[in-house]
Each structure stands twice: as C-alpha cells, then as structure tokens.
Specification:
This protein has no helices and 18 strands. By secondary structure, the protein is mainly beta. A hairpin with a 3-residue loop joins strand 5 and strand 6 (88-93).
C-alpha cells in the first residue's frame, strides 16, 4: 500500500496475504467497492479460484478474508481482471483448470460467502466465447475483452448486469471488420464509447485501438 500523499519509502506498507493463507498469491487484477479491496485469483502454482478481500480500514492480517470460488464450481478459476457495479463483483474468465474459460464468476459484495456466488458461462452461448483479458462496466453492462483462447481473437462480449443470464448476453466479433482487431489486454469507457487496449494479435505486437 502506497500513501498517495506521502509518495516516499516512508509511505509504503506491506501486507502478506500468503501469511494468512498460503494459497493467497498469484493474483491478476483487482478492484475496490470503497471499503474493501478485492484481489482477482489467477495462478499460484495451479489455476486459482480464491478471491482475497482486504478491509481497507484494517490493512492487516486481521482484515483479510477469502472466498474459494472452486468450492462453488470447479470451473471458476484462472481469471484475468475484474470489476464491480457497486453491488456485485465480476471476475473475467481467461484460462482455468479445465482450459480456456468463458465462466464469469459473480459474487455479492454484501454476502461474501458461497451463497452469494453465481456463474454465467459465456461458452454455453457460443463455444468460442472464452479466453477474455480484463473487462469493465458502464454501470448497466459488463464488457469482456477479447484476448487469447489458443489464438488471438476479437470476440467482445457484453452482459446486461440487470439480467445476469444467457438472455442478457450479446457479442461482436471485431476481427470480422479487421483481422488485426484481436488479442487485447484491458479496456475502459468514457461513458459513451468503449476503448480496447491493443497488445498482440496474429501479426505480432499490435497498436490498433
């Protein structure tokens, strides 16, 4: 943790999550709801599904709790990034223990237990909807950024967060417009438009937003 008002070595504090639970390591991405910080499980020697939650008002081992999503569903592991709409946290599926994944994990920020977890598997809509790399929300919809599922792809998925079911999913294949519009890593919105961050595609490293 870095004190933004004291950007010196004296403003740095460390908290070792693995001292609380040895599985709490190898995260990729995180977000906050204001009170808690959530750390997205990726790979800790195997694909992980343990979300770590830190009470930002109690930045110590006593403020750490975790939620093992694999105890809810074995498909929920190996995420890349996440976000919140204020009530729920959403984890972006990338590559789990069963291979490239389209299984979004949603957990209730007011009920951080297995009973607050739901899953939506995008690959049940189309088998190619998997291997996403980060995501974002505009408040109503969640956007899941096309990444890599054995090859760099351009399939951008949108989920209606008020209808977290298969009927709330739509998607676009950006690569049908331009073969280079694939293999992104992250994105954001200005409220009207979504912007996808270029990383790599079949032609090599990319700069095409």
């Amino acid at each position: 943790r870095v004190d933004l008002q004291n950007f010196t070595s004296g403003g740095i504090f460390a908290l070792a999550l693995a001292a609380v639970d040895p599985d709490l390591k190898g995260f990729q991405g995180g977000f906050t709801d204001g009170r808690y910080g959530y750390f997205v499980p990726r790979y800790n020697g195997s694909m992980s599904g343990k979300v770590a939650r830190v009470d930002l008002q109690n930045f110590s081992a006593g403020g750490v709790t975790s939620l093992d999503l694999e105890a809810f569903d074995s498909a929920l592991s190996g995420f890349m990034g996440g976000f919140t709409d204020g009530r729920f946290g959403y984890l972006v599926p990338y590559n789990g223990n069963s291979g490239f994944s389209g299984a979004i994990a949603r957990f209730d920020l007011q009920n951080f237990t297995l009973s607050g977890v739901t899953k939506l598997d995008l690959a049940t809509i189309d088998s190619d909807l998997k291997g996403f790399a980060w995501g974002f929300t505009d408040g109503r919809y969640g956007y899941f950024i096309p990444g890599y599922d054995g090859f760099y792809h351009g399939r951008l998925a949108r989920v209606d967060l008020q209808n977290f079911t298969t009927s709330g999913v739509s998607w676009l294949n950006l690569a049908t417009l331009n073969n280079n519009l694939a293999g992104f890593q992250g994105g954001f919105t200005d409220g009207r438009y979504g912007y996808l961050v270029p990383n790599s595609n079949a032609s090599g490293f990319s700069g095409e937003i």
